[in-house]
Amino acid sequence: MIDAIFTYDFLQNAFGAGLIIGVIAPLLGVFIVVRRLSLIADALSHVTLAGIAGSLYLSQSVAVFSALNPLFLGIAASVGGSVLIERLRTLYKHYEELAIPIILSAGIGFGAIFISLAQGFSNDLFGYLFGSVSAVSREDLLIVVAIAIVVLAFIVVFFKELFVLSFDDEYAKASGLPAKWIHFMFMIVTALVIAGSMRIVGILLVSSLMTIPVAAAMRVSKSFKQTITLSIIFGEASVIAGLISAFYFDLAPGGTIVVTSILLLLLVLIYKKIAVSVKRGAIA
Amino acid sequence: MDAPLIEIKDISFEYEETKALDNISMKVEKGDFLAILGPNGSGKSTLLKIMLGLIKPSKGSIKLFGVDSKNFKHREWIGYVSQKSNSFNSGFPATVKEVVAGGLAKKAGLFRRLPKTVDEDVLEAMKSVGMEAFLDRSISELSGGQQQRVFIARALVAKPKMLILDEPTVGIDHQNVQAFYDMLAALNREKNITLVMVTHDVDTVTDRISHVACLNQTIHFHGFKEQFQTLSDEERASWYGHSVRKIHHAGGGH
Predict the structure, then answer these.
(1) 8 Å CB contact of B82 and A160
(2) Distance between terminal CA atoms of chain A?
(3) Contacts of residue B75 in chain A, CB cutoff 8 Å?
(4) Is residue B101 included in any domain, yes or no?
(5) What is the ipTM of this complex?
(6) Quick one: average pLDDT of A104-131?
(7) Which regions span the lipid bilayer (chain A) (predicted)?
């Protein structure tokens, strides 16, 4: 496998992008999960689908779009979707969760229309939906690197504010933190990670990489920082094992990565159950 | 003479069509321990939210430490403790130490790390609420009363001049409520922290506070607790409803 990575450019791109996503998706995912925003990741991934499908359709009829990486329109749609979700959450103050199904349906709706209009990109589409080892270009890798720099800078700079906001948003506002702006930037960064991750994991499974490693880490960690560390370890393990198995068995990496993360979650749950039983036994 | 820590003038507030506060004016002076009393829906929490700048009044003005609240920059001077059940995200994977250190976020400032003294600051705040043994415990493992003490430590860690508390004893069992109020009284007395607290525990707090404000959309009484204790049951019932009456304690007080 190592030889193959050194031999083939596409494998270097896929593993490079995968390793980066294995860090940034669970890292941001910790904040998404503790803020109970997991479904927003799903809504944004479907909006990204609309952007990608739109770009693929336009590339057939408009010259400018034929040279454009569909990821750019995907990113634009995802960021636009995150802004719209915020506007809708403000509009429906007492039913904030309504924003999610509205944007999710809009994403699928537009996506379906563009897919029907455009003919002949079923292979591309399959890759975007479930991820692909072979389709990650050097340009995709560079986009992922750029997104990772933005995400890491955002989290390092605003870590303490994000922590306070995630734990208790009313307290964050009362203590004078710019909660509204930090939340807005958080949504934009989430949109970027979703758009950047979907080349590897696929649109339909991208939110899983942001939530399942975190779900596993939360069961065994004792502190917030430990939750972040374990989430990244579980995320990376899922990406590496998932990409290797996808390469050898010619499977969609989105599927293998997510199934690996589910297996890890099951192992953690079993471990936790045994640990609790042993502890109870020791006390008794 | 120092400016009042809070000075409210002619404040009104409505939730859509419903009037929550009507022409409220009041001052909180340095060193006060003020209990804001009132029945459910009387506007107590709304008034606190206006003091904290969480919501804007439809009319009137508010000064904090002598400065118009719109221009007030030192939010870290005001510690806030909310109703536990309303606010914090239960099950959150964090240690008590991490939660309390979060209280330093505003004081440290944007784009800056927490100060190097964070461990000592957190320990000192935890000592003042008698919880120093719980630093490395998970916040979700603690009882309601312990969690509320941790939230007071989080408010204290930035060394505020004033604490604003919204029904801080909600979720605390009856036996621990007395000890909780004793701890607040000690903070007021020994650390000279001004306290503004919304509460329903009229009789439990009266011995420990200095001032009382009675609110039901408008201020019906604001003054020293000794004056409040002289109010008759009829006077209290006229604004509070019939559920509040004086309890005569064995010591002859009210």
Answers:
(1) no
(2) 50
(3) 174-176
(4) no
(5) 0.87
(6) 85
(7) 14-34, 64-86, 98-121, 141-165, 230-249, 255-271
